[in-house]
Amino acid sequence: MTTQVRTEPITVNLGPQHPSTHGVFRMRVTFDGEEIIDVEPIFGYLHRGSEKLAEERTYVQVVTLTDRMDYVGSMLNNQAYMLTVEKLAGVEPAPRGVWLRMIASELQRIASHLVAVGFLIQDLGAWGTPLIYTMREREKILDLFEMLCGARITNSYLRPGGVFMDAPDEFWPAMNEVLDELPPRIDDLDDLLTDNDIIFSRTKGVSVLTPEQMLDASITGPMLRAAGVDWDLRHRDPYDFYDQVTFDRPMHTAGDNFARYWVRVQEMRESIKIIRQCEKLIEPGPVRPLHDDVPWLLRPPVGDAYAAIEHSKGELGFYLVSDGSISPYRCHVRAPSLINLTLLREMLIGELLADMFVSFGSVDINMGEVDR
Amino acid sequence: MNSPFLENSLFRNIYCYLASGSDDCAARGYDIAILPAGLEWLAFTITAFIIINIVINAGLGAVIVYIWGERRILGRIQNRTGPNRWGPFGTLTSVADAIKTLFKEDIVPDEADRWLFNIAPILMVFPVLMVLSVIPFGVGTFVVDINVGILFVIAITSMSGISVVLASWASGNRIAIFAGMRSVAMLISYEIPMALSLIGVLMLAGSMSLGAIVDAQDIPFILVQPLGLFVFLLAAQAETSRTPFDLIEAESELAAGYLNDYSSMKFGIFFLAEFLATIVASMLIVTLFLGGWRGWEPIPSQIWFAAKTVLVLLFIMWMRFSWPRLRVDQILALAWKGLFELTLINIFVTAILIAIWPDPSITELLIMSAINWVVFFISIWAVSKLLRPGDYTAPEPQTDSPAYPVATDELPDEVAYTGGATR
Amino acid sequence: MSKAWDGAKLAEAIHKSIPDVVVDASGTDIWIEPESVQQVMRLLRDDPEFRFELLSSVTAVDYISYFEVVYHLTSLNRNATAVVKSKCGMGRDDARIPSVVDIWRGADLQEREVWDLMGIVFDGHPNHKRIMLWEGFPGHPLRKDFATYEQSIVPESERRVPSALAGEIEGGQGS
User: Fold this and answer.
1) Is the pLDDT reported for residue A139 higher than 70?
2) Helices A95-124/A171-189 angle, 10° precision
3) How does strand C80-88 pair with strand C29-32?
4) Contact A52 C142 (CB under 8 A)
5) Which run of H or E residues covers position C72?
6) What is the pLDDT of residue A165?
7) What global pTM score does this model have?
């Protein structure tokens, strides 16, 4: 016979200043003991009005705003925005520029996944060691970006029709060195983390989401693939030259925190494959169309366009409306970080306090993109 | 007078030169008296004061060195340099940190229960310092060797749980309350395997005195008591809340747990107590399982003791910096479903072996240790089998869509827009 | 390669099930009556001919004389996309449109964002609150007639700024 102990729910404000909310995110959580019974996410602490600011800038100037949305995936943001601009203005991109931006965005995807995995382990309570290991690898990739465009985080590398500068000669051997070093490092990470009993028991079966639930909530990206849905825009709707490269789409069927972590680790390996193929296929030539064809002050015809890419976090789409002037009439961002949080409540209810930030981290959000 | 204190050579030398008139000192051949007869109590007080000061200051110094060492080693583990600015190899960094901590503003929240809030750090540091008094640091280097040493250690260390609860309650902070709840659950659970894991050592040594236990270790008890050491190591980590068990101040979950509202010196005292507790736990492991101060001449016994302690501390740091934290239910499951059983197995096996060889020689001890190691591996394997969750095989990358049909029914060209996709 | 529904063909297909809701079609886009959003969206999600399981994006554009709500839909099964638009708030006042949260959960945060920044009311949204800005923020920033505080269309007397924030905001603008 068991006697029911009467407990009183307590409501705690976690964030915006909390060490593991990945920025300034706030959750009003009601606990019954350690168990979560209600979650209310509160957004907006990093809202900078990027969409409004974009309306006052020229099409090329807006690139700098996209850098600051998801600041661990700047190249990918640039790419999504440029695809939309090209579609809106009907720009035919220069092939070498496209290959370069594919390389850049795949490098950025590795960097972004490294951050995601590192911080997930940090949320699990490791004393920073795996995080520093992933950050060390990311640092090398940022050095490559520095060679490409002079900036490490806020790259602003892409321009309509390609990139603004060709890669210097020393970039290619440096990139090959990084790519040679990466797979053993990822294997190390696998040894340290994937086979770790504690990580396995902490993440397995926690915050399970079914494919139907996720599709209903518009969740895309590694989260969706972790539940076994083969939906990768690079494969299903190849933009740029993704139809000329081959790669696998790693999938897990569990849909829990472990699956999300595992899919990200595998995707890094696939990105390396893609970069290697790009390196073989790239040919000399101009990196962007002539200025006469694509001027800096682009004036796309009146109309609208929506283009999306497979960002490291999900489907990142830009919706641009042009009124024929030099700046967008409306610039909307379909931010995967924000939309992937739709099911946060469902993910967390019934889990324990300790798993809360792990589940939250496994979504891999970036507050710069959530709030924009 | 109190003869256990006179076993301590330092105490004896100070005390007996102050008050040699007493019978005990006379019996030991001290004939110079500084204080007149009848003032033995004063001699005792002065001596005790000196000794306590030496031990406490040595403890604090050890913490300063330990924090520096931990940061340096953490740096090496994480491919960094660690602190290297203040003093040679950054040795003065922790000193600077300590001074900085003392000069911070002391904030007491409005919601706090002031009296309990202030007393909690003191309650935290006292038990740890008291444990130092029974540990033999070397030949004749100890404060006192009481005959119930282990019991004293277990009794005193369990007080630290109270101070965590007090601190978390007195803060009036909901996040701190979580830390208090966790500490009650965890510290009390781990008291039991911790105490039981020492029974084997007690049976082998035949005494509760830590000095006698060191004397009894003709071969270190790590060989004879692997299971005991394993359980004690984990339980000690839990009691001192080092990383796989650092639920109480879980940084990624509770910010700083019960320390959330503490600042300045009170925070410093908590910090100190926590690190001192780790050092004391390592010292206990050395004393109970690694032969204490015993080593080979001509290296002094104190150096042996320190070296072994550093070795254990390095092991604890290694665990701390490579593993993530366990969840609260897993930690309790480990204590009650894993470690508790292991201690029972250990007691059972050791009792049988002692019944066979009541007064074992070195050879018999080696046979005992062989049997114990076999038991160790079998029981660890069995318990980990029991506690482990499901399957461990990660699936191969799949290229079809296993869970949901994708692109099975492609849009026919006649309804498709010819200008390209909308995406 | 994903294919997009041709607007005219999509309008035709919808017309077969629900007559006279599609106002216009051009390129890949169709325009529907705001009142029939629920009906059309349910059809687009459930009918095996469309099967749009994924609502990619919900957004709105301010065209001065009216607002246009834009839905980008994706079908995983058919690997297809479609764009559905709906004009509402003619003459700028009382911009409202039925919510599609009960059809796609994914519209939840996006509709809140549109309400917050563009000021379009989504009828039937279960948690119709501001998301990026604080409650009581004057106006909706993405509207074309919203500029800065000084130039805001909301008169000073009608601004509902929380008292704790009021001084800070006024001071911050250096007015």
Assistant:
1) yes
2) 30
3) parallel
4) yes
5) strand C67-75
6) 85
7) 0.83
Taking one residue from A and the other from B, the number of pairs with CB-CB distance under 8 angstroms is: 156
Whether residue C162 is predicted with pLDDT greater than 60 in this model: the reply is no
Average pLDDT, chain A: 85
| Residue with tokens 């959530």, as numbered in its chain | A370
Query: What ipTM was reported for this prediction?
Result: 0.82
- In chain A, positions 188-207, which contact chain B (CB-CB < 8 Å)? 192, 194-202, 204-205
Q: Please check whether residue A164 is in contact with residue A288, taking contact to mean a CB–CB distance below 8 angstroms.
A: yes
CA-to-CA distance for A136 and A131, rounded, in angstroms?
9
Region C85-100 average pLDDT: 83
Measured on CA atoms in the order C151, C152, C157, C162, is the torsion positive or negative? Answer: negative
Nearest-Cα distance to chain C for A195, in Å, is: 34
Q: Alpha-carbon torsion B281, B284, B290, B293, what sign? A: positive
Cβ of C5 and B417 within 8 Å? yes
Alpha carbons B132 and B368: distance in angstroms, whole number: 31
Quote the CA–CA distance of A13 and B260 in Å, as a whole number.
14
- Per DSSP bridges, beta strands A314-322 and A303-311 are antiparallel
**With 0-12 CB in 10 A as exposed, 13-18 as middle and 19+ as buried, what is B229?**
buried
Does B395 have pLDDT greater than 60?
Answer: no
- A239 within 8 A of A307, measured Cβ to Cβ: yes
Contact A121/B at CB under 8 A: yes
The CA distance from C160 to C62, in Å, is: 23
Within 10 angstroms of residue B162's Cβ, the number of other Cβ atoms is: 16
DSSP letter for A217, please: T
Q: What is the pLDDT of residues A41-93, one digit of tens each?
A: 888 888 888 888 888 888 888 888 888 888 888 889 998 998 898 888 888 88
What is the CA angle B408-B414-B417, rounded to 5? 90
The CA distance from A75 to A66, in Å, is: 9
B237 vs B322: CA distance, rounded Å: 14
Q: Is B394 within 8 Å of A262 when comparing Cβ atoms?
A: yes
Query: Is the Cβ of A317 closer than 8 Å to some Cβ of chain C?
Result: yes
What SS3 class is residue A248?
A: coil
**Please, are residues B227 and B376 in contact by the beta-carbon 8 Å criterion?**
yes
**Alpha-carbon dihedral angle through residues C58, C64, C66, C67, given to the nearest 10 degrees:** 10
107-136 in chain A: CB under 8 A from chain C: none
A64 touches chain B (CB under 8 A): no
User: C14 to chain B, minimum CA–CA distance in Å?
Assistant: 13
Nearest to B415 among C1, C5, C76 (CB): C5
- Cβ–Cβ under 8 Å, residues C103 and C41: yes
Beta-carbon contacts of B116 under 8 Å, excluding residues fewer than 6 positions away, are: B166, B167, B169, B170
B12-21, B221-230, B270-279, range with the lowest pLDDT: B12-21
Nearest to A361 by CA among A54, A46, A126: A126
Q: How far is C86 from chain A (nearest CA, A)?
A: 14
For chain C, the maximum distance between any two Cα atoms, rounded to a whole number of angstroms, is: 60
- Report the distance separating Cα B256 and Cα B374, nearest Å: 41
Mutating which of A206, A230, A235 best tests the B interface, going by the most B Cβ atoms within 10 A? A230
- Which amino acid, residue A324? G
SS3 A352: strand
